Amino acid sequence: MNTANEVLEPLRHLLSLEHLPRAQLIALLDRAQCLVDGEGDRAALAGIAICTLFFEASTRTRLSFQLAAQRLGADVLNFDVSTSSTRKGETARDTLRTIEAMGVRGFIVRDNEDGSVAALAAAAGPGTALVNAGDGRSDHPTQGLLDMLTLRQAKGADFSRLKVLIVGDVKHSRVARSDLHALRTLGAGEIRVCAPPTLLPADATLAGCTVSHDLDAALEGVDALMMLRLQRERMEEGLVSSLEDYHRDYGLTASRLRHAAPDAVVMHPGPINRGVEITDEVADGPQSLVLRQVRNGVAVRMAVLETLLGGPVRPC
Amino acid sequence: MNTANEVLEPLRHLLSLEHLPRAQLIALLDRAQCLVDGEGDRAALAGIAICTLFFEASTRTRLSFQLAAQRLGADVLNFDVSTSSTRKGETARDTLRTIEAMGVRGFIVRDNEDGSVAALAAAAGPGTALVNAGDGRSDHPTQGLLDMLTLRQAKGADFSRLKVLIVGDVKHSRVARSDLHALRTLGAGEIRVCAPPTLLPADATLAGCTVSHDLDAALEGVDALMMLRLQRERMEEGLVSSLEDYHRDYGLTASRLRHAAPDAVVMHPGPINRGVEITDEVADGPQSLVLRQVRNGVAVRMAVLETLLGGPVRPC
Amino acid sequence: MNTANEVLEPLRHLLSLEHLPRAQLIALLDRAQCLVDGEGDRAALAGIAICTLFFEASTRTRLSFQLAAQRLGADVLNFDVSTSSTRKGETARDTLRTIEAMGVRGFIVRDNEDGSVAALAAAAGPGTALVNAGDGRSDHPTQGLLDMLTLRQAKGADFSRLKVLIVGDVKHSRVARSDLHALRTLGAGEIRVCAPPTLLPADATLAGCTVSHDLDAALEGVDALMMLRLQRERMEEGLVSSLEDYHRDYGLTASRLRHAAPDAVVMHPGPINRGVEITDEVADGPQSLVLRQVRNGVAVRMAVLETLLGGPVRPC
């Protein structure tokens, strides 16, 4: 789709990983790696105001972005629209444009509707950058980036040799969609997906993936597992009969993990339902990269904010 | 009431625009204009702690004050008393005095009771400054100041030549009261008010204003329109029959706006009920100053905080 | 239990005052006294992130810690778990370890379960420090420290000459337990406790204390009164018949206070139920140290955070 040599347009917003050029994706990972190893520059975004604008609550994601922004010296404001009594029927577009008029230059936006963050970005003024912190089932690009960074740290930069298995509710998961976009862009050797049929999307999301409903078989020889969170709503909707059944068929246990490559790594976007998607033994075991993902998340978000709002990004 | 030459007492709190001397009002506008044009001084309030103390929620106003305080280098704390489970029957006065004892020197206070902010100010210690961020129907002085700054930018400093029309629920509006105080202090040439009789105050609020219930007539030749927000409670209280009726009689449309002077400007304190007080075409049109008001709001609040809490205010 | 000459292990967490060595307790008070008199060092914790993690809401305590951390230059994050919709069944341990993985080094934790903060501390990584901001009925060590600092300022460092009276709901009070630990460590001359039998603990909490149910008698000659807050739940639980009865029997009035030593001081952890534990006249009178306690609270929390997270603490 693009070559490493093409001249890249500067990134204005980060809305999706779907059409992010490979060179830009790699540049973000490289910069994030610098920031994992070293220190952020507290002057990078000094005097720049950034607002988290969460129409759907998520303290964990908000904290990660807030820490990233603080380490770059930005002023951070939080607007938790989901619990605000002040929205008073104002449109999301007016909320954004109002806070933008106050001088805020960066927005971290989460919403439960597909495409809503891109729609807001279209309404933003020329100096304003938006980061999609999760919209509906569509995208969660910084999660995709942090997953790729974690995978690259563990397995090296050549993704063509990797067999990656995604387990769980791909149908409702923006994490899975962002991971799939990034894995394709980075040329992952094989992408497998394993889930109950009720949790698999019917559209083109899984194009090119090997789909299975048998976890033991799907695990055979994989280098990396990306476990997805099971939302409790799936039980209420009748898509999953019970947590016990789900765990029996799709839960990752230490014995099951032995089907994978011996040095396979296990990832999960959190928060984990312990004993459902994954047992304690696996979650806290040596192959788990769960906390490493969280750590990388702050560095990835710093890299994104620097790239969108800072001057030219400094070398390591 | 005062001359430009009199020596002004330093401003201790900002509680109302009613008795604010003209010279002090103009000094605040002048300083805010500097801050719109230039940069704030991040050392101005370094090490000074400011707390927003909102007994009535308002994220938009809180964010504006928070940004203003951050740009002056202050430490900002938020206490949203309206959603706090910790008030536990403590009096507002004890809440204030407790946070004051922690070393907080500035309080931004909003409450739904008339006069409550002034009552709190009377309880504050000698080094403490309060800013009224809206109390009941009485006052919202920083909104009044930002409206005057916006008007002055658009129409020049000589208010005696201006015909200003305020449209809507003056009866329940602290914004209108603060605007009226400031317009009188600045010597506005003519102040008209247009609203349904049920939304007009019976007291002295409108002294000197030309009151009308016919928007087309009231618009004739005005230089500036200040549209007020219609709270949905007015319908429940039976003061307005329906949003549709209100819009038909008192909503500002592009065709109606042609009755005003050709260069008339349109203001609204936000958040706008689009299609009620004002159509999209007008809200987003070339005569609308709505986003300019928001931008000026931060500068006005910086000027107020600097004046109350900083050392001598620096020239532009 | 320890001598002033022993070499102290550096303090890793502050979980309880029960086993805190006397020399360490005094070092914290000494450092807090420096900070009351002078300025904090805004570089002391620069670049260090601290998170308030409140499983039980308390705005007042959160603000005090937040101010303390800001004055030391730390980045402060607030996670009010009690109102968060995002906890989603995650264990407290996973919440802590996740935020820790983001690079947060200090946690201020409040929870309504006894021992829960110590349990979390056991799960924390080697570079992480926890401060117990109140757990169940067990401990509230920074409140104990600020009470001791306040007492020392008023009465001098020799506690052996002091008669201290604690009045009220010791049974349910973590404040009382932390005060009792500290008073014993500092060698208070006499500790009296006065409360209705229903509000007294049956365990070893009151070992060595003189217990009474007659406030007038208990007041005789005391140098310091520590009034405890009466939670309204006690009425619902039938432990107290009514606020009026409680006030009649255990409320501190100006006339009752005359039974104490003429220079006796009155303390209360706040928020005060005026007219219940204490009358307005006493709360706002010359013997009340209530606001001084609040002021000292910030300094004590600065001293604790510096000691746990900073380099070697500077002399005054």
Automatic annotation (TrEMBL), chains A, B, C:
This is Aspartate carbamoyltransferase. InterPro entries: Asp/Orn_carbamoyltranf_P-bd, Asp/Orn_carbamoylTrfase, Asp/Orn_carbamoylTrfase_sf, Asp_carbamoyltransf, Asp_carbamoyltransf_Asp/Orn-bd. The gene is pyrB. Belongs to the aspartate/ornithine carbamoyltransferase superfamily. ATCase family. HAMAP family: Asp_carb_tr. Pathway: Pyrimidine metabolism; UMP biosynthesis via de novo pathway; (S)-dihydroorotate from bicarbonate: step 2/3. The lineage of its organism: Bacteria, Pseudomonadati, Pseudomonadota, Gammaproteobacteria, Lysobacterales. Residues 162-307 form the Aspartate/ornithine carbamoyltransferase Asp/Orn-binding domain. It is an enzyme of class 2 (transferase). The keyword Nucleotide-binding does not apply. Gene3D superfamilies: Aspartate/ornithine carbamoyltransferase (3.40.50.1370). GO terms for molecular function: aspartate carbamoyltransferase activity. Catalyzes the condensation of carbamoyl phosphate and aspartate to form carbamoyl aspartate and inorganic phosphate, the committed step in the de novo pyrimidine nucleotide biosynthesis pathway. Heterododecamer (2C3:3R2) of six catalytic PyrB chains organized as two trimers (C3), and six regulatory PyrI chains organized as three dimers (R2). Carbamoyl phosphate binds at residues 60-61, 110, 140, 143, 270-271.
